[in-house]
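Moderator note: this is an archived Q&A kept for reference. The question asked for a predicted structure of one protein chain; the sequence and the answer are reproduced below.
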Amino acid sequence: MWLGRANWANAAARARSRRSRLLDRTRIRQLLKLEPESIANTIGDAGYRADMDLYGHRLNGAELVEAALSHNLDREVHEVERFCNGELADIVDVWALRVDFNKAKAVLRAVKSGADSSRVGEGALPAENPHNTRWISIIDSSSNLAEAASSITKMRIGTRIFSDVPPEAGLAEYEDALDRAYYRQALKSIPTRGPHSCLKRYLRMEIAHRDILNIMRAMRQGLSNEKRSEIFVPGSGLSKATEKGLLAAQNNDDILTALRRTPSFDDEGLEAAFTAVDSGISLDPVVDLFHHKRSELLLRFSHLNPISGVPIVYYIERKLLEIENLRLLVRGKAAGLPEGIIEAHLTL
């Protein structure tokens, strides 16, 4: 079925086919049981063999898997972009841009730490990937964050991303600017009517979850209200009263009270997650809860709008999650962490 220039049905079917090949929870947990030296082979057999072979001549162990995962994600997202046409391509591009924004952060972190391009080329930006060439050149040609930021604005992610960031700003300020720019572009690109308007709701939920987690981290660090306001990302849909309450929150009960001032916010299960956080040292219970809420919402939208870009967006989100889980698993195994610790940090 073709509507205008957009191949909705064909692209949605291809995305569903690719999604069926992703690793499920059972297979991820099986990887946890393997010895570190066996994990790379098993990941290769799960669809990453070509990418592993590409880097096998110069890397091994966790570094090999890291580079292969990065290359596979980049290639997969670009392939999905290429089989989408017209308005559909514009919508899918919103999610494909996440990869480029993450690369921009990798570049800024490399410049800040003084890492050379060869070191970054072993993991976050593998040199064998032609899509990384210009990003790597920014690292080689930049002596500070301001120079790197200037070069990043010449990439396709946007020209005015850092317009409000002073040259002497730190890494956190530049990364916050990237986050704000991404969500600003994303919300602007999604139609306000039709089947794809549901993606605006999804993005607003994602922004709200991001803001809440940032406030929780800010409380732990003892940041002032002024500093907290700087890490807020506009567009969450939270009421002004809720945002004011979050900025002034001193504990998780205050956060919950503030969130209930926005009736549309889904806080089911959040109180129990806060209790789990209070009894531990990690925010993982809240991170996991928020992830599952977003995933369930996007899956429901994809069922309600099967001939649209939503199933494709859902596939990209699941692919991003698979890559993140495999990275965490491989790094944890390489560091000798117990299986329970690694599994606690996975989003399954």
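Archived answer notes: The longest helix spans residues 86-113.
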